[in-house]
Amino acid sequence: MAETLIILPTYNEIESLETVLGRIRQAVPQADVLVVDDSSPDGTGRLADRLAAVDPGISVLHRAAKQGLGQAYLAGFARALEHGYRFVVEMDADGSHDPSALPAMIDLAAGGADLVIGSRWVHGGSVRNWPWIRQVISRAGNAYSRAVLRSGVHDITAGFRVYRADALRSLELSSVSSQGYCFQVELAWRLEREGRRVVEHPIVFIERAAGRSKMHFGIVVEALLRVTLWGVFGPGSPQPEQRQAEK
């Protein structure tokens, strides 16, 4: 059985999915891949089924509706832990994360890192084809999160990651409700607070060539609100929507 499960959340990624899976197969042919599709209206889920039918290392988890990135990863984590994988990978299905970085990242996890983050904002890391405003938002969001949460992670919002499965088991995943940037922040921060080893590996992040970005203003606002509440009240603080309802 494979030791590594790569989780690919998808929503309308039909233009990039087959290419990304091919690149993953070249980089880490021994890994399994789980496509978690949120009923993509463009047929991404059906394409994933066709690809899985000819590759036993690919499986597909269909969800009834679009429920967000965080919930897609939590569903994938549950599958990984249930089936006894040793390493669990998060990566985007739009081609922005280069699978060729995975062997080095998995080696770092095998060497004792509980979380390996493919980092854009450490020495050797970079982004390509991003407008300046996206870079400013990402850098500012990371700097704010580091300061408020007293984190040592430079790219705490990054979505290219390798977790040791035993580190995920140590987290109370059922209590995670964040989405987008904030989901990534929350998990890395929780592991840091537990004293787990978090390592950043430099990557080159390349903006998607096809399809539409899922980034929107609401994701940024959610991240700012939640990070601020965690920094002030701690990890058990009320969620932004809960605090609003209490007023």
Polypeptide structure, described:
It is a single chain. The chain is of the alpha/beta class and 247 residues long. The chain has a single domain, classed as Alpha-Beta Complex (Spore Coat Polysaccharide Biosynthesis Protein SpsA, Chain A), CATH 3.90.550. Helix content is 43%, strand content 17%. It contains nine helices and nine strands. It has helices at 17-27, 44-53, 69-82, 102-110, 132-149, 165-170, 180-193, 217-233, 240-246; strands at residues 4-10, 32-37, 58-62, 87-90, 115-119, 126-128, 161-164, 198-202, 204-206. The chain has a seven-stranded mixed β-sheet with strand order 3-2-1-4-7-5-8, sandwiched between helices. Helix 5 runs parallel beside helix 8 and helix 7 packs parallel to helix 8 (217-233). The longest helix has 18 residues, at 132-149. The radius of gyration is 17 Å and the shape is globular. The N and C termini lie far apart (52 Å).
Q: Top keywords for this entry?
A:
247 residues, alpha/beta, Spore Coat Polysaccharide Biosynthesis Protein SpsA, Chain A, seven-stranded mixed β-sheet, disordered C terminus
